[in-house]
Structures are given as C-alpha cells and as structure tokens.
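Students often ask why inverse folding is considered easier than folding. One informal answer: many sequences map to the same fold, so there is more than one right answer. In these notes we will look at a single instance of the problem. The structure comes first.
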C-alpha cells in the first residue's frame, strides 16, 4: 500500500470518535482507512539577466511538466485531466494549489540540488485531486501524488499545505534513488526524508532561514476544531497536536523513547521524529538557509548509492557524516554539526572514533 501522510494510528483514533459533532469525521476516517492506495517530453524555460550594464545574458533551464487530474470524488486514478503545463488556472482551489505547489517544489529541487524533477531527468509531475469523498489523506502511489479533500471537521483539503505536496513528491525521489523499505527504521527514514525535503521546499518558497522557519509538516490542514498546529514538528517532535479527542502527538525526539510497535508498519510515522529532530538540530546549528548545507548533505547521502534499502538510523547517520566529509572536509564545522545532531538524539555515540 502506498504511504500516506496521515498516519493510520491517527485515522484509527478519529474513526473511533463517538462525539455527535464529529460523526462526519469518524465516517471519513473509517472510509479513508478502508480505501485502496495502490502503489504503481522534457521542457525548458528561458531566464534573462543583466549582470553588467549593456550586457544581456540568456540561459535556458529545465522547467516542470505538470498534469493535474480530478478523481471527481471517486477512489480512482488518474481521473479526468483538468490542467496541463500551458493551461490557465481553473478556479478549482485544489487543482490550482496542486499545480502551484508542484511548481514550487520543482523549483526547490532544481535551485537547491540541480535535480530536474523526481527522476532527475525531467519526468512529468502528475497529481490527482478530489480523491474519494471526504478522504482524509494524501499519498504517493509510485507514479503520481494523490490528494483528498478532507472531511472539513478534522482535516481541510491536503493541497492547501506546500509541505504536504513536497512531502509526497519527495517520496518519489526516495523511491527513484533506490528506495527505503517501508517498515521499521528504514520506513521511518523514508518518512523522515520526505518530511525534511517537504519542510525545506516550503522554506525555499518562503525564503526563510533555519531560524525563521516553523519546521512543521502539514501546517494548516487541521480545522479550527482541532487543538493542533500540524501533523508533525521537526523542531519539537511530540508537540504538533494535543487534542482531547485526537490525543497527543506520539513522536519521540530521542532514541531512549523509540517506540517498538507492529502498528504503522513498525512505527514509520512515529519514530521518524528521531531523524527529523536530528536534521533540525544540524540545520539550526549551521544556520542560514537550511537547504544550502544541511539539506545538501542529506541529498548527497540519499543519492550516494551507499544507503541500502534496509538502512537503519545509524547507517543513514554514517552516510550523512561521509557526505559532509566529502563535501566540506573532515575537520569542517559541517561534519561537527552532523555528528553532534545525531549524537544529541542518541543515534550515534558522542565519540567520533567509530565514524573516523
């Protein structure tokens, strides 16, 4: 089954709600849990600049090739194509939000890492909106991003959050780079890497530094009836929501609180808080725009070819240390920050010798 951004334990909690005012949300959660999530030409743009008076420089750079389809509240994909790259805005909020969000995410990957789309070779960015009726999730199905409209009692439409759109696209990048088995620690890394690049895409779009950013995933997708800011927080895992009905965000920020569970594919959405927080600590220690150094290190590690599909947290931590060393030098502040971040969340010991 394709990974969804809303964890199954949260949907199960909503599905069990007995409060009369949340009847629609409970039914929507039950339907969302039961719904299937099957896992299944290069464009250019012209940029002009004037670096010196009287000098015009023209260069072409890759551009996204987006196609948005409408499932028309059925649980089918792709649905009816409603907007392509050269089409005007439709006036349908979900369609246009998905189109704009994919464009902003594409710009992030290109500007930060010179990556041309999901596969690095200009593949089309495909999305389906209005999936299902009151569908409370968004997911990557192996070939496209799929977004529900929410139930309007707990969740709003999922295209309203750029971090959600970018999270789902990042799952495609992870898959293209060899994938991470969606179970246990490798699955939590899969979710974490999608969260990291989801947050970075949003920060890139807003022009935010690490200190200015919210570090939230899915900010704004809860309705006002929910006591919560977002689905997850990289800055403070376990604090994204705390609601009388939905319960409290269960994510740990340190290995001492690691959750051993068979649910959620071995806790992939829960334990992802640990590598998420490691990245936050590293990014804020280095400062500036987080995609420029911390994000580059994560990207270099992901694309190094040295991270197996069954990687655990320690394996990925060592890959990021190796990537930082190759990029910045063994005695650099970047390597020190990466070591410290992973050590502070208990993934590696506070001792450089094992990684030397």
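Output (designed amino acids):
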């Amino acid at each position: 089954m394709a990974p969804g951004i809303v964890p199954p334990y949260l949907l199960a909690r909503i599905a069990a709600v007995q409060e009369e005012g949340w009847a629609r949300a409970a039914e929507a959660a039950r339907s969302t849990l039961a719904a299937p999530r099957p896992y299944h030409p290069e464009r250019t743009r012209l940029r002009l600049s004037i670096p010196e008076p009287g000098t015009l420089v023209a260069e072409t750079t890759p551009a996204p090739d987006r196609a948005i389809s409408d499932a028309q509240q059925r649980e089918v994909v792709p649905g009816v194509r409603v907007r392509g790259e050269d089409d005007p805005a439709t006036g349908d909020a979900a369609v246009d939000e998905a189109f704009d969000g994919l464009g902003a995410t594409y710009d992030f990957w290109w500007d930060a890492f010179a990556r041309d789309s999901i596969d690095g070779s200009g593949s089309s960015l495909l999305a389906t909106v209005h999936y299902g009726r009151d569908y409370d999730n968004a997911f990557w199905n192996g070939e496209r991003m799929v977004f529900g409209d929410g139930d309007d009692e707990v969740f709003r439409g999922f295209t309203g959050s750029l971090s959600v759109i970018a999270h789902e696209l990042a799952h495609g990048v992870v898959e293209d780079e060899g994938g991470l088995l969606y179970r246990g620690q490798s699955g939590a890394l899969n979710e974490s890497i999608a969260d990291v690049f989801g947050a970075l895409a949003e920060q890139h779009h807003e022009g935010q530094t690490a200190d200015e950013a919210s570090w939230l995933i899915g900010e704004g997708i809860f309705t006002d009836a929910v006591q919560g800011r977002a689905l997850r927080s990289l800055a403070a895992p376990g604090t994204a929501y705390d609601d009388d009905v939905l319960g409290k965000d269960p994510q740990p920020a340190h290995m001492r609180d690691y959750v051993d569970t068979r649910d959620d594919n071995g806790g992939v959405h829960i334990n992802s808080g640990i590598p998420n927080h490691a990245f936050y600590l590293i990014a804020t220690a280095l400062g500036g725009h987080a995609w420029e150094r911390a994000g580059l290190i994560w990207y270099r590690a992901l694309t190094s070819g040295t991270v197996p599909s069954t990687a655990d947290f320690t394996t990925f931590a060592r890959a990021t240390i190796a990537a930082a060393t190759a990029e910045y030098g063994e005695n650099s502040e970047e390597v020190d920050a990466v070591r410290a971040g992973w050590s502070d969340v208990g993934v590696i010991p506070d001792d450089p010798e094992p990684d030397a």
